[in-house]
Queue: 4 jobs
Job 1
Amino acid sequence: MTAALAEQGTRPAPAATPPPAARGRRRRGLDRGVPRWQIYLPLCLYLLFTLVPFYWMLLFALRPAGSTALVPWPITGEHFQKVWNERSFGIFFQNSMIVGVASLVMTTAVALAGGYALARFDFRIKKGFMLALLASQFIPGALMLVPLFEIFKNLQMINSLGSVVIAETVFQLPLSIILISGFIKNVPVSLEEQAWVDGCGRFRAFCAVVLPLLRPGLIAVGSFAFVHSWNHFLFALMFLSSQDKQTIPVGLNTLIGADSVDLGALAAGGVIAAVPVVIVFAFIQKWLITGFSAGAVKG
């Protein structure tokens, strides 16, 4: 018993945990070096600079024609009804959705295959291929309009949504392949090797082990592909000639006349075009914060 008491006496005393009030004072002491107004003022200015154009667009879209009030009251939906029914924005919205979803699927599928090849295989021209992918990002899309137009003309794809989908996919693939390759490199090869030992082939192991871990990365790449296709103006303007094949960016351009501009209809069309983009980016943020490889390897 004497030895036990001696041993207990030699043990270090446990560190005292500071009370919550002390921890709060310590945290405030760390922030005391920077005044709060130096943090909040730039954030408020940036928020004001970002939101004022959106408020101005909503103001013209929701207030009655001829009104000059700074508050949209009474709220009216006449501008939305006009652009949706009279200006064929229902058709434009449908065409843009087809182009966006098709570009999303094609870009994600091809980028997944190319990214896996770059991440898992070594071949002689790998570095040169990566350099070519990076260099292609410096080529403006406008420089390729004439060659693409001639190609689609020979393929009889002019005035077809397929031409816009192919053009959008081709121009989004380099960056998408690089991003997907980076995601796959962060997945340990040992996970696939364990699946191979259990009898899975390479494709089955990829679908069962790697693909679920790539979900946030695939969603991010696909979402960016969708947003880019949704907002792109140049390809739809060049390759689509009839009105029933136009997309929303080209439809917004038709609301701008030579002598006058219907600001209410133009603002309503801008709101219609912005809603899917806002929803997609809200969805992207959730997956980017989560982290695609959390919990992939457990002891």
Note: The chain has a mean pLDDT of 80.
Job 2
Amino acid sequence: MAPLRNSRAAALPAKLSRSWLLASAASESNFAPALASEADSVVFDIEDAVPAPSKAEARERVVEALSTGMTAWVRVNGIETDYWADDLAALSRAPGLRGVMLAMTEKPEQVTHTAMRLQAGTPVLALVESALGIENATAIASAPGTFRLAFGVGDFRRDTGASDDPMALAYARAKLVVASRVGQLPGPIDGPTVGALGEDLLEACKVTASMGMTGKLCLRPEAADTINKGLSPSESEIQWAHELLDAHASGAVVGDGSYLPRLARAQKISSLADSYGLWNA
């Protein structure tokens, strides 16, 4: 019998997912631990995680898993590769497919063409990994079929020669944030911080959150809970929101021109705290 998905994570809408765990499809043994983890969303990976000679086998492994009780997203190969069409043809028949992450997205029509080959309504998460993709981010975010944007940090750095310093990647992250807002999408998903756990990962999440990004990719199940904490409203933010909303409900007088923006922020924090189950955490 297929293992059940973490029930808390399964109930959370993907538009609010903070941690996105990439589980290599090179081995079926990676699937169950990923699905049982605290990751808000799980992505079976048949792209970077699988060498070319094993692509077909990995694809079949994923379709089998998604046809026998498992549910997950799948990272598919880029549209310019020889594998993209076969990936989508196979996944379009998989009942447990939650959505696809399109690798190497550089143009808006790539998302639309991908969506058209899947069951109607299947969300496509555009993974932007190059200079061209970043410059086209606004058009990609507005393309029919685009559900959310994600940042492929490693490939972007290889493409541009940028370091992993937050300042070196600030433009790309900001571009994805602004593009997501223009396209009326949820906040974008930051790339993984490879090898980081604990405090180091929390520090990386501070950079992610400070840029306006609301999710983060990860490669290890144990990283998911840290990311969830790092990208959730803090205890002090929740307390502030609670106090402001209570005062507003009791008829507090608007104090200045910043009141309505602060009220909107408090309402957003309150909504997220409810969604993430944080009020009594």
Note: Strands lie at 19-24, 41-45, 72-76, 97-102, 124-128, 146-151, 189-190, 215-218.
Job 3
Amino acid sequence: MTEQNLTDSRYDVVVVGGGAAGLSAALVLGRARHRTLVVDAGEPRNAPSAHMQGYLSRDGMPPAEFLALGREEIARYGVELVRDRVTDVARGEDFTVALERGGGVRARRIVVATGLEDEMPDVPGVAGRFGRDVLHCPFCHGWEVRDEPFGVLASSPAGVHQALMVSRWSKDVTFFLHRVAEEELSDLDLRRLAAAGVDVVPGEVAGLVVEDDRLTGVRMADGTVHSRSVVFVAPRPVPQTGLLERLGAEMDETPFGTYPVVDSNGLTSVPGVWAAGNAIGFTEQVVHAASGGYRAATAIVGDLRMADLDAALGA
């Protein structure tokens, strides 16, 4: 992506975040003839993945290619995009948007599509192989690794659910309790694991075994090695919602992080501010994020249209 100089200091809409949600919103806004700016820090959540799956007509496409096509599409409608980071947004008659590289712009409406970061379990080797043979979502990657020997690394007793789900894609699944005591699992958990054919291994995991740049096993603290070629983990989601919090948006604490309270179109409790994608929830996949950006944009187009008509009536 080439750098662009901003052609104006005032936009109808500033979209914060250039992933699937932000680009989808920008596409709709551009086609509605709204002066729109996308500020993209260039840190998509799915960057470690070689391909994205489950998006009709785009199944298997590399995430970087998907975003590059999206940037080309929004440019056709006059949408501007800059590689920068929004450091603050202040409310007023317009929103004042401060940029990390200096200066800022004004906007009548804001879309926050800043996503989230995945914080990996503190096990040697896990972070470096995430998106390759260390995975987190069977819907995203299960087909590609089907029937391989799976390991599932527990971060909490809730890891049982992940172990049961991935057993749909492989009959050879080992559930490593790591720092979870077996007593923390319910009788129903243990019976379900047994019914699914999932082996349960107590004890702490010391790290992964990698040979010739390929995952081959899971090493326990006692030195035992279990042969595995894929390991599923449950990263701790860290929503990038600082801007929304500073704007005073109502937030909701969930087991997967704190997210803004939004209506069906992504409108937050702050008038004029919408949110979409992983900024509103942990389970928003690419296809959901694109849909959320579209819904937010259509709502903004209607909101701005009514505001302009009401202003004309008042004048």
Note: The first strand starts at residue 10 and ends at 16.
Job 4
Amino acid sequence: MANTALETGNAPIFRAGTSDAEIEAAAMKAMSRRKYVVLFWQVAILVAILGVWQLASDLHWIDPFFYSSPTAIGYRLYDWVTEGTENGSLWYHLGVTMEEALIGFVIGSITGVLVGVALGRNRLASDILSIYIKAINSIPRVVLAPIFVMIMGLGLPSKVALAFIMVFFVVFANAFQGVREADRNMIANARILGASNWQVTRNVILPSAMSWIFASLHVSFSFAIIGAIVGEFVGSLAGVGYLISIAKGTYDAAGLYAAIILVMLVTLGAEYVMTLVENRITRWRPQQHMDAQ
């Protein structure tokens, strides 16, 4: 029998008699090729955007005073890294923002999971408190920044409080919904086997809701960063938001974009770490293989 595989486009087509090992090898090859194709286009799009931006700035199709240019932003980032900002070391400002965001993220995530699971498991309590949760959630969180700064001052607590609020409702909503979406048949089977409420919650509900919870954690850290920066922008003595505020006040477009890029890099790094943690914790789940198309 022939053991061959033909490739048309990106998907391999196998002839009758192809062994499982050949099929797996061809699939892995197609997936590897697809990763390189994706990476190529990601880099190409970024280079194209930066190239058009630089060209438009050099030829004055756009005003460099307002839009700056990739080279000016790169030089500003280099100066900040090597010589620091006019208001202190870049690492000090970045460390202040990260401290605020991390504390708010951790407290908000833990509280959101605990409250979401508790209310998800207690329908009466969730019905009673739902109106208050909806009322608080309807308030745009960023407008709370001046209130927190006024009550708690310009230091760490006001920024942590805003980061906490930004994170809590995202995590709470997903944890609550994840509990409600748990497989009722598995819960019933666990109860038949004599499992207590705590055992059902720990061994059935939480694993079932873990995908929902991690989905919220992936986006909530960026919200924690936003909360910390908005709080710093409203009133602070240090942090990336403080640098943005100074750049805005001095019409320093390159400084504004440089600070935004810093936030993007930190958030992407946190997203990568979160993915590694999720993959390690949820190794029990079946692997989701992408179709090599």
Note: The beta strands are 5-8, 11-14.
